Each structure stands twice: as structure tokens, then as C-alpha cells.
Amino acid sequence: MGGIAVCPGSFDPITYGHLDIIKRAAKVFEQVYVVVLNNSSKKPLFTVEERIQLIEDVTKDLKNVKVDSFQGLLMDYAKSVNANAVIRGLRAVSDFEYEMQITSMNRVLNDEVETFFIMTNNQYSFLSSSIVKEVAKYNGDISELVPDTVEKALKNKFQ
What we know:
Elements: E1 4-9, H1 16-28, E2 31-37, H2 48-58, E3 65-70, H3 74-80, E4 85-90, H4 93-109, E5 114-119, H5 129-137, H6 148-158
Parallel strand pairs: 1-2, 1-4, 2-3, 4-5
């Protein structure tokens, strides 16, 4: 397909579900920007810089993936990197309504950028960063949910 795609999210922290979507997008697009949202309405566990470092670490083998952050409108960021696509992961039907609203608004802001939805692998359909943080907080086993470096970072946060 080619082109440049933006894969936005809070990634607090990145999980195997996120990584599944990123790897699959990297197979389709020439360049994929994984972009950490700096959302002031959320209270993240990890700083933007920490999230960027974790994502860079787990995507280092994907040569066409770059990691960045932004604050503001996604369509402004997409324009700044000449992206023609936005990648969004869907876990379940419940995600679709919210994603449809966001996609419709983004189309109003810039109708030259298409949104592509990628269904997550079934083994990750239940997985969210919130669930991972909750399990990690109580010393539960998250080794099958996140890469090693993320598991270690979570353990350090909750010690």
C-alpha cells in the first residue's frame, strides 16, 4: 500500500495488543508513526518520555516505525508528517462506536486522511493498559500481556 500512517494512543503502557497492531500496520505502510498522546485529562502512570522510551525499545526491530508524541488535534499532527492514514485498533464491538465518532470528526477536519481499523488478535481482545496496570499493582503475572521491559518498568513503578 505504501504511504505514511499515524498510530495514536496513550500507550500507558504499551501492551502486546498495541504491539500486534503496530507490527501489522508496519507490514502495510512505508512509514508508521506511533504517537503518544499527551492528554491532559488523563492521569498517566508513565510520563510521555517514559512511554516513548518503552515503545522505542519494543519496536526497535521495526525499521519503518518511528515514535513521537503530540498534544492537540491528531489531524494537525498527521498533516505535519504528511500522513495519509490513521491506524486504530479495535478489540471488540464496544470500541467501534467511540472510534466511529472520532473518525467522523477527523474526516471533517481533514478528509484527505483515511482511517484504517485493525482488529486485534483474539488473544488480546480483552487486553487494555488499565487492566495491565491493575494486575501489576497487585503483583499479578503480566508476563504474557506486555514485553519484558514494560513488565520491569511496571514493577519499578509499583515498588
